[in-house]
Amino acid sequence: MARDGTGATGVTNHMGEVFTGSGSETHSGLIVTDGAAIPAALGVNPFATIAALAERSVDLYARKNGMYFITEKNGILNLFGQPKHPYVDSAPKPLEQIEEQGVRAARDQIAQAMDYKAAGFGFTEVMSGFVHRDPEGALIADKKETYERAYRTAKSLCEAARFFLSVQAFDTEALVQKDDHPAMLTGTFVCPALPGSPFMVQRGDFGLFVVDKKAPGTRNLTYDFDMRGTDQSVLHFHGYKVVDSSVALSVKEFWRATSTLYITISKPPADWSHATSGDTDPEGWRRGDILAKGIMKIRPKDFASQIKTMAATGDNLFKRLWSVASFMTFFSRKSLKLFVGPFAKLQYPAVTYKGFINETKASRSFVIVARDGVKTRMHMWEPTNHNMPVRNLFMIPGASVDHQIYALPTIPYNAVNYFTRAGYRVFIAVHRIGQLMVAKDHWTTYEARLDLRACLECIRQHYPVTSKEEQAMNPGNKVYTIAHCMGSVALSAGLLDGEIPSSWIWGVTCSQTFMNPIWATLNMIKAMAGPIPLDILYRMVAGEWFSCSASKDDPLVQKLINEVLRFYPGGKGELCTNASCHRCSFVFGRLWNHHNLNEATHRQINRFFGGVNMTLLHLLMRQGKMGHVMSNDGVALTTKKNVERLRGLPILLFVGADNQVLTPESTERTYSVLCDTFGSSDAQGKMQYKRRVVPGYGHLDCWMGRYAWRDVYPFVREEVDKVTRGAGYKFREPEDRFKRMVYHGELLP
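Given the sequence above, the corresponding structure tokens read:
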């Protein structure tokens, strides 16, 4: 107690209120009421003096704040009951409201478990590591490389972090059965680099082996909670451990995956908290500011201690034993499935549609009739950005697929979304070698060129250039065309043999190949190895049609193929159990880097693929083996006379660096032929031929990848803009939901 009423001579004033500094200002409501307030030692038993001073302090505080005492006699104290006179704040603060909602939710969860007389399970976990505070906002991306960079930086700056968390599942059955496998987190988090440390963790969420919707075949152990610092600030902690196919048959990798936590500390937006919005908007914290990132790990001695803390709860011994058995069985089953990846049970197509988050409905659909009478389809989407002149954009998918590779419903931002908001009216052909019933009728890429001509005729007839300004820009009523893989081969066949006049085409972007398809190593082996080509061998054993889909009810031969294909070579560290994915890889080659797909796309890949007839496959194998496009009777179409038809046509070629279907040489050879024949620049000195290799991408993930909107679509649009709108055109992002999603980081990993 100060002798002069200031912090210069003591800690408290005469009321016991603690000073904020050396002046007379005090912390509101912080009162010392024990013997520590007495400035000197008393010569007698101080009990009565301490009690009298405490009563005086309370009385003075009550008078100062307009409070009064209820003097009625106390009843018997019930330690587990509700207060008889609960305190009610007439002006509750937002943080207190959030706290109350969190308490209420936890109380309801415990009460429900008690009503069901459920058995529970819990343990305590200690992790330590390094977390780097990021005041400049340079650590936004949720990539492994970003966390590792933050970890190294924090370690060099001694920015250590440690948490002590208790994980408690009040209902073990719910932990095992629910999709998010939930448990509650409480404890503390310490990181001196963050203002407000140490932090108190109350009622956070723990998820055990939760399906990672952003990466196929991946399970995460997730940690999500708000934490309150000593300065009353509230930050959000998001952490996850990644258990994917890299752990297969490797004890070392399994330990690394389950003991390494990638964490992000953020300041959540004012309108969001984990307690009130965690269920309805679990990713809402991403809209806030990222404050720090890093990596935390379990040390072996901490793990040994963690094992000792595992304990079950329940009314009796039988329930506690059941709880332990259920938890350990669940943990062992999930771990074993990931550990023995190549031998795990095959995953067959889902019966119901899941993860269709972006249904991109066509504005109009056309029945296309080619000159040989074959009927196919074409879908059209009107532009969503009306702040610029409309341009027609024709997109051609490859073999066995349809418009959905560009209008993919399982990613939030697909190619059709991207180009329609850039002012393009998008047309997508579904040709005779795509995902149509007619594809079984032995059609090939050479005949598919007839469908593409009919589509172009339809576009030019129904959506011609009308205004004088557009006619001056595009006097020939041309259509810019984007073509992928064997759709690109079919387009090249039509342009080279004159079936499709080059005067109809404004420019072409060729994805993966154009007129010089060359198989990657494994596909070349399938085309050349053995006395009997693979397509002929399959025809002898299983018939004229190879379906990319699979089913538990498949014939015996197909079931045998499904089981054998689980060992088909894939990418490094990539193992999946999806039977349809295996079949697609077998017939075409590995079509993607798995980490570029999200779980919904990979899980339902059968919905986006049809199959291939053996006549088409035979021609594809011949073309990829010989390295050039050809007619059905094997005549090469890449003669000098035919190539001359491409004069004046701007062409962009791009290929995924990790393409395992066609080699990057496919585009390199075409680029060389075009430059050698016509020169790399046109008469005005503008580059008319370009080639690009996309790092980190394979084949179809260039269009179906979850981050293709960031890594692929932009450079394609830039080329289309340059050709159709002029070299000086600058695209301006429209104010729409996609811009908001990008701005708030909702599309980032």
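The radius of gyration is 33 Å. Try to locate this feature in the token string yourself.
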